[in-house]
């Protein structure tokens, strides 16, 4: 029996398996990892060394460009509002495509399809009676005990706090001032 072909196959197999395990970081690969110099952090007490970074350090930070950016931020003031006795709402039945404008009086539910809408309050800017409307709505669906929506809706931004219902959509238009 000749062992020559088996020995050649064993040597070839051993060489291939060793080559397959080589991760590419052999002696011929220069990583430069030995050239990296590790030094301790600055112990001066300023920044993250020493005692760390304090609020006073941030307030007195040199080159306060970011502080100027903070000063440039505009803020909005709260607009004085008045309450109205009712609201005009628009309701959509997504299944049939029916759109209906509803006049709702505070505290009195109105039915549209299979939902009941109760207006808690409708507020409008004092200095602009025909301005934006802020309506607090509670919406119940037939067969469901908990409300499907309860919260404030803004006429100028109805998607800001929209009712998430598979069939119906509702949003405020104006407050009824009478």
Span of the ends, CA to CA: 113 Å
Q: Which geometry do the CA atoms define? A: flat
Number of strands: 8
Q: What level of helicity do the residues show?
A: 10-25%
Structure report:
It holds the Pfam family DUF2155. Keywords: Signal. The structure is a single chain. This protein has 178 residues and is α+β, with helices and mostly antiparallel strands. The chain has 3 helices and 8 strands; from the N terminus they run H-H-H-E-E-E-E-E-E-E-E. The protein has a domain at 81-176. The strands form 2 sheets. Strands 1, 4, 5, 6 and 7 form a 5-stranded antiparallel sheet that branches. It has a 3-stranded antiparallel sheet with strand order 3-2-8, with no helix packed on it.
State the main characteristics:
3 helices; alpha+beta; signal; three-stranded antiparallel sheet; 8 strands; five-stranded antiparallel sheet; DUF2155; 178 residues
Helix-strand layout with pairing:
Blueprint: H1 4-21, H2 55-59, H3 65-71, E1 81-84, E2 86-93, E3 99-105, E4 110-112, E5 115-125, E6 134-141, E7 149-154, E8 168-176
Keywords: Signal
InterPro entries: DUF2155
Signal peptide: 1-20
Give a concise summary.
The protein has 178 residues and is α+β, with helices and mostly antiparallel strands.
